[in-house]
């Protein structure tokens, strides 16, 4: 496990997309919940937190999921696969989110009521495509945070967008409110992820 003094920069530099996992290494449900609790501190549009996580650890279920995920080995051999779902109806969280902030002393009651009212006016009337874009963007933020937290704890991950989303919805009976965004394998590497190169920063940055 990376010690507490390890810098964020080191965690970022050491993270790799790992596809070979030790199938005998298991991460407890309690620790996975703790990782997700930290990951869920990620920012989101209007703090509506438009995500949900389906954690798949059962071995037979992972075998089924492997077929849905284009036979990717890491789906079966990692300790868990975390499906990150985007919430198309994130506005339904408004009451709970803003009342929680009020009760914690982060906003006054007038602000709470205004935020709830504004959210319930704006978001439901927005086209579904826009709400899906918001949910996908925020799901990406929480997923990246999850991967960095896992690496800081000495674990490995790989995000996967290559899976049959319709089959996933049907197999796991996903409510129409949610859309599968990505699968994320979590475990202990049996072989290191290979290093990759990046475009030079001069090619992709322009100061104006």
TrEMBL record:
InterPro entries: Nitroreductase (IPR029479), Nitroreductase-like (IPR000415)
Superkingdom classification of source: Bacteria
Domain Nitroreductase residues, every copy: 12-188
CDD domains attached to this UniProt entry: MhqN-like
Coiled coil: none
Gene3D superfamilies for the chain: NADH Oxidase
Keywords: Oxidoreductase
GO MF entry, a single one: oxidoreductase activity
PANTHER family in the record: NAD(P)H NITROREDUCTASE YDGI-RELATED, NAD(P)H NITROREDUCTASE YODC-RELATED
Family, similarity comment: Belongs to the nitroreductase family.
Protein name: Nitroreductase family protein
Organism: Mesobacillus boroniphilus
């Amino acid at each position: 496990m990376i010690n507490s003094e390890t810098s964020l920069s080191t965690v970022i530099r050491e993270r790799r997309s790992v596809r070979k996992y030790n199938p005998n290494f298991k991460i407890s449900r309690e620790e996975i919940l703790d990782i997700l609790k930290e990951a869920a501190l990620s920012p989101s549009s209007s703090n509506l937190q438009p995500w949900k996580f389906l954690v798949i650890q059962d071995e037979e279920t992972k075998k089924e999921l492997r077929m849905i995920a284009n036979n990717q080995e890491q789906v079966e051999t990692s300790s868990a696969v975390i499906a990150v779902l985007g919430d198309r109806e994130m506005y339904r969280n408004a009451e709970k989110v803003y009342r929680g902030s009020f009760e914690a002393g982060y906003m006054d009651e007038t602000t709470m009521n205004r935020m709830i009212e504004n959210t319930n006016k704006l978001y439901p009337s927005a086209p579904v495509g826009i709400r899906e874009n918001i949910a996908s963007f925020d799901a990406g933020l929480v997923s990246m945070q999850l991967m960095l937290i896992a690496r800081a704890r000495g674990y490995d991950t790989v995000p996967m967008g290559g899976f049959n989303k319709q089959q996933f919805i049907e197999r796991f009976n996903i409510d129409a409110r949610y859309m599968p965004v990505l699968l994320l394998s979590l475990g202990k590497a049996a072989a290191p992820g290979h290093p990759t190169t990046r475009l030079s920063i001069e090619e992709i940055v322009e100061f104006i």
